[in-house]
């Protein structure tokens, strides 16, 4: 049985190279481990096996990655770098060795590029797509007027974005900010189950954020006191439907999910309805 449809999938944003630019796609396939195919498919490492990512290395945010619509190729460039490093085009996701050479020149140290069909999720347990609502992103823009909605998307790097649609007229309806907080429940209870089209999800927890959202997604420059301001406002506006015990701190946004291995191969498409599933 299902509750009424309250939301539809408004945006799918893959991040094919971990910490680099996203690409919006009209549809995506669930991969073998529950994430989306091509999402976080490449990750960068130093030779001593340390991540090179936006948390540890803000300079990575100044790299631009432009993907072919079919994700068969990627062009890497560093237009704001005064060393004038030439842009280069690579086959994706196969050409990891040549791409590693380009990254090594940029970072001035040897870089390894690794590819995984399972992706490199931040949460190894709740490793399905992260979900946020358009209304939440708009609320963030009210909190931080220096950020527009596209920049909010780039900073929080969520995979799936949902919005409300009036089923009778097809027009956009109002969805309250943080609607997605309905998609997780109390700890040590049944997970919240929901479905987008034919793909079954379990909502896990509100996603803990890191040092990336305060940073400009193109330059890496921080907004002063971003985390404290965000946490205070998140606490003050926590909706009644959110399970407060899941917030050991309030620097959390979007929902981590789990997707069963049996869902692999199913397709998500922009416009697909979201259903809350009852037991």
Write the layout of secondary structure elements.
Elements: E1 7-14, E2 23-24, E3 27-29, E4 42-46, E5 51-52, E6 64-67, E7 73-77, E8 88-91, H1 96-107, E9 111-115, E10 131-133, H2 134-143, H3 149-156, E11 160-163, E12 192-196, E13 199-208, H4 226-236, E14 252-258, E15 267-269, E16 273-277
Parallel strand pairs: 10-11
Antiparallel strand pairs: 1-2, 1-11, 1-16, 3-15, 4-5, 4-9, 6-7, 7-8, 12-13, 12-16, 13-14
Account of the 3D structure:
This protein has 279 residues and is α+β, with helices and mostly antiparallel strands. The chain has two domains: 7-35 and 122-277, M1 Pyruvate Kinase, Domain 3 (Beta Barrel); 42-115, no CATH class. The protein is 15% helix and 27% strand. It has helices spanning 96-107, 134-143, 149-156, 226-236, and strands spanning 7-14, 23-24, 27-29, 42-46, 51-52, 64-67, 73-77, 88-91, 111-115, 131-133, 160-163, 192-196, 199-208, 252-258, 267-269, 273-277. The strands form four sheets. Strands 1, 2, 10, 11, 12, 13, 14 and 16 form an eight-stranded mixed beta sheet that branches. The longest helix has 12 residues, at 96-107. It is globular. Residues 1-5 and 167-171 have low confidence and may be disordered.
Provide the residue-averaged pLDDT.
93
Overall geometric form: globular
CATH hierarchy: architecture of the largest domain: Beta Barrel
- Termini Cα gap: 7 Å
Taken as a percent bin, the fraction of beta residues is 25-35%
CATH class wording of the largest domain: Mainly Beta
Total E-strand runs: 16
Order of helices and strands: EEEEEEEEHEEHHEEEHEEE
User: Helicity level, as a percent range?
Assistant: 10-25%
- What kind of sheet is the major sheet? 8 strands, mixed
